[in-house]
Amino acid sequence: MSNIVAVYCDITSRLAKAGSAFGQLQRRLWNVHDVSRETKIAVYHAVVLTILLYGCETWTLYRHSVRKLDQFHLRCLRKIAGIQWQDRIPNTEVLQMCEIPGIEALILKSQLRWVGHIIRMPDSRIPKQIFFGQLSTGKRPQSGPVSRFKDVIKSHMKWRESNAADLCSASLSRTSWRTSCYKAATKFEDARLSALEHRRVRKFGARPLNNPGAWPCSSCCSRTCNSRIGLYTHERTHR
To answer: What pTM did the predictor assign?
Structure first.
């Protein structure tokens, strides 16, 4: 449990420092209209994300930690793009407008690359000994065991369409491993965005192409609402 507490404290510290760095650039960059969005995103990636994800290669993340990081990431992107909550723009469109993946895909790519570095290390290095080491005594609890770093890597390996058995042989080539990590992160992000869009359409309905700001009622009536919140309120009358 000490590892979970350490990761939680590290994430809290990273969020505070990244938020401070983002706030210091508020007047000088984010609120300046003469600077293009591409330049702002490049600075955000080089300054804020570097501070936020420092040391993320060794994190063992749970869903609540990923949610906190993703909320901060999207809040910063909405501020950079000048998007307000009244615009009713979903998170999937915000990521597509800024041309940047979600925070979970960035962590996945960093952790896979770090595992490749560990495997290519000499056997005398301590990180490699810890990664491949096993406890001689003791056993894990049967109900809800605490996640390990190895469990996180095993879940990441499925996006490479491979298992943990060929991990050592696949990561020996630095160039091919870097390419496969990028492809795995891209595949994960595409699947995540597709699932979010499918869930949004199933809940609120699809918007017509001729009027993207309109939300038609999925029931028998032909009413069209101007926002998905209005559509949700209207559909409650059919229940």
So the answer is: 0.79
